[in-house]
TrEMBL record:
Annotated active site: H141 (proton acceptor)
Residue numbers binding substrate: G71
Site (Increases basicity of active site His): D142
CDD domains the record matches: LbH_AT_putative (cd03360)
UniProt KW keywords: Repeat, Transferase
Protein name as annotated: Sugar acetyltransferase
Domain PglD N-terminal: 6-84
A single MF term (Gene Ontology): transferase activity
Family annotation (PROSITE patterns): HEXAPEP_TRANSFERASES (PS00101)
Pfam hit, one: Hexapep_2
Length: 211
């Protein structure tokens, strides 16, 4: 984990969880960007609040790292948009890993990946840029998780799964081995996926069926 100071984008529940991880690891938080002032009550005391993107641009891209604090419950599009905007301005996103996560030495976490408490990433798996593997979720061996993906709390991915960009895998969903999940699709909470998921589709239920 980096010792470079970070700025957190967003101040809702996901940002709070990230603050917790960063503080455990004594990472300096330069500020939290909360354009919507109504969210400020969610922010821990003592963290400097930046109220607009302009405040972030006062910090040189080589002096800070950004942490994407936007969560997602369905679409990951907003997280992707904010990531791409700041990348276009030359900023780099920190990869954040809770100390209780188990990450194989042969797994790869790409820029801005966020691995929450109790998550497990098995050998030869890749977690793409700006993707979240949330609390107690597991990604077994040889999985390829694309960019801007959210694997929500407790989801279980068996071995050899390919998840394309922009997918949301809902809380507690289970995916059997070798499945391909097409880009920008949504797997509903609790679904059990036994067949390929088409891009831009929504699947739910046991076994999961497309809506
Ligand atoms: C740390 C965190 O909190 S991260 C957040 C993680 N959260 C998630 O992963 C949530 C993922 N989202 C879901 O599973 C949602 O329920 C969705 C996206 C599948 C559906 O949401 P919406 O479009 O708002 O649907 P809505 O709640 O109106 O329900 C529509 C119908 O689908 C059913 N339904 C909703 N969710 C599910 C589900 N997961 N599985 C099966 N059926 C479902 C509802 O019962 C309802 O059925 P009805 O029409 O017969 O009454």
């Amino acid at each position: 984990m980096t010792k470079t100071p970070v700025i957190i984008l967003g101040s809702g529940g996901h940002a709070k969880v990230l603050i917790d991880i960063l503080q455990i690891q004594n990472i300096e938080i330069t500020g939290i960007c909360s354009p919507d002032m109504t969210f400020i009550q969610n922010v821990d005391n003592g963290i400097h609040v930046l109220s607009s993107d302009a405040d972030i641009f006062e910090h040189q891209p080589d002096k800070v790292l950004l942490v994407n604090g936007l969560g997602s419950v369905k679409s990951t599009a907003k997280r992707e948009e904010i990531f791409k905007m700041f990348k276009s301005k030359g900023y780099t996103f920190a990869t954040v890993v809770h100390p209780s996560a188990i990450i194989s030495q042969n797994a790869r976490l790409l820029e801005g990946a966020q691995i929450m408490a109790g998550a497990i990433i098995q050998t030869d798996s890749v977690i793409g840029v700006n993707s979240i593997v949330s609390t107690k979720a597991s990604v077994d061996h040889d999985c390829k998780i694309g960019n801007h993906v959210h694997v929500a709390p407790g989801a279980t991915l068996s071995g050899g799964i390919t998840v394309d960009d922009g997918v949301h895998i809902g809380t507690g969903a289970t995916i059997i081995q070798g499945i391909h999940i097409g880009r920008n699709s949504l797997v509903a909470a609790g679904a059990v996926v036994t067949k390929e998921v088409r891009e831009f589709s929504v699947v739910r239920g046991i076994p999961a069926k497309e809506l």
